[in-house]
Amino acid sequence: MKEPDQHSSPIKSPKQLIIVVVLAFVIPIVVIVLVTQLVTGGRYGSNESDKDVLARIQAVGHVVIGEAGPAKGTLAGDAVYGQVCKTCHEAGLAGAPKMGDKGAWGPRIAQGQSTVVQHAVAGFQGKTGVMPPKGGNADLTDNEVARAVVFMANQAGASWKEPAAPAAPPSTTAAAAPATAPPSATPTQAGGAADGKKIYESTCVACHGAGIAGAPKFGDKSAWTARIAEGNNTLYTHAIQGFQGKSGVMPPKGGNTTLPDADVKAAVDYMVSAAN
Questions:
Q1: How many whole angstroms from its chain centre is CA 199?
Q2: How far is CA 124 from CA 21, 103, 133, 159, 210, in A?
Q3: Has residue 187 got a pLDDT over 80?
Q4: Count of other CB atoms within 10 angstroms of residue 37
Q5: Are the beta carbons of 94 and 88 closer than 8 angstroms?
Q6: Torsion sign over Cα 24, 26, 31, 36
Q7: Is the pLDDT assigned to residue 17 strictly greater than 90?
Q8: In this predicted model, what pLDDT tens digit does every residue of 237-276 receive, in sequence order?
Q9: Which of 112, 93, 108, 121 is closest to 214 using CA atoms?
Q10: How many CB atoms lie within 10 A of CB 92?
Q11: In 10 A of CB 83, how many CB atoms?
Q12: Of 6, 57, 239, 248, which sits with the fewest C-beta atoms within 10 Å of its C-beta?
């Protein structure tokens, strides 16, 4: 019996060779296609919970139109001090009695709560210093100013009672809430630019309207000439950071530290244009 040749090939003809070569390419491709269909044939996310799907498709970022601030007239004394009064009373600018200085506050406390509050609300110019109306922030209510006065006086030994905050208005849903800006919002024009006139009338007029603490009066060309000669950049820096010179004192941002720098610059431009 003849033994089979171990070195012979199972491919006996060119036709068989062609079939083997074709199958060598076709079979792997078919296997890959079948595996792909098996993996991706179902709906993506069909096995995910609603929570997982929402987490996966949520936007990368979100836009916040604005956040509600505290209702007008509800700020406590320490909050008003931190936002407005601190500017002058922490460093003693324009003769303001420093926070906690019993020697400086003693004579004022002796005048009584009603007198000191009246001076703080309406403004006062005495021998030792100047108090602009409401610390230069006309947005504050009289009661908010009174609470700040009581807070500072009590830190210097007084035992005055702080006026109570008004009752908070009933809560409303976001859909029913009016689209109004908080009291500290920036006065702006339709195009988004700061309105120098509105900022002057709400903050700067406290000192520049009457020339308090050496502030150049609005429209007084003789008082503004030397300052204008220093250049706008210098005026901006003094108005934003504060300045104490020979002729007067400029508290940072006019005492309203919530103002953005752009608003302060707009107010400076408005006053400069009125003096040119």
A1: 17
A2: 103, 20, 7, 23, 11
A3: no
A4: 9
A5: yes
A6: positive
A7: no
A8: 988 888 887 777 788 887 777 889 999 999 999 999 998 8
A9: 93
A10: 14
A11: 20
A12: 6
